[in-house]
Amino acid sequence: MTEYLVPSRPSETEFTEKRSTFIGHVFPVETEEEARVRIGEMKKKYHDARHNCWCYLIKDGPVRYSDDGEPQGTAGQPMLGVFQKEGVVNVCCVATRYFGGILLGAGGLARAYARSAKDALDAAGVSAVRRWVVMEVPCAYAQLEEVRREVLRFGGVEERVDYGADVLLCVLIPEERSSQFAAHVLDASAGAIEAQEAGEAFRAAPMER
């Protein structure tokens, strides 16, 4: 089974450090060409900024970064390190700095650019791309929150909820835990809740972090 993590959505964040404004962007990308397009868009949008530093990581592909005029090793690498530490790929990050007149020093710059990348990643959220078993779980309204807790406990993701006389919860469960999940909810509910397989999916789904 192959599993990898990607950003859930594009994001934008901003903070000020000693009068310098840092604007962070994260984009989900599939190719180096797409990453280059995103970088070009940000450079055009923030053409009046002192620095537009960037990095990108493509799964089974290139890994690149740029300090864009900042001292070597103080921007692109710290940004890249955030995604490597979090295990996130297929990501492009651009951190724009509007200089505020106060020097931050090498350590201060590295921390600020790393924070910009991390803030943007946190805002984007992280999704796991993997094979899931789609399961439908019928339950009473009074049981819904407990079932939701069990889904999270088994590393699953809620897809949708259909409300009627009872509740039908549609969830994604990691394929290697689907049988265990079904057996557990059946046992925990004394046979009242029977989870049924409704297919498979290989795609990204948001993760609780």
Question: Could you characterize the architecture of this molecule?
Answer:
With 209 residues, this protein is of the alpha+beta class. Helix content is 32%, strand content 38%. The protein is built from five helices and ten strands, in the order βββαββαβαβαββαβ. It has helices spanning 32-45, 76-86, 105-124, 144-153, 178-188, and strands at residues 4-7, 11-17, 20-28, 51-57, 63-66, 91-98, 126-139, 157-163, 167-174, 196-206. The strands form two sheets. Strands 1, 7, 8, 9 and 10 form a five-stranded antiparallel beta sheet that branches. It has a five-stranded antiparallel beta sheet with strand order 2-3-6-4-5, with helices on both faces. A hairpin with a 2-residue loop joins β2 and β3 (20-28). α2 (76-86) crosses α3 (105-124). The mean pLDDT is 94.
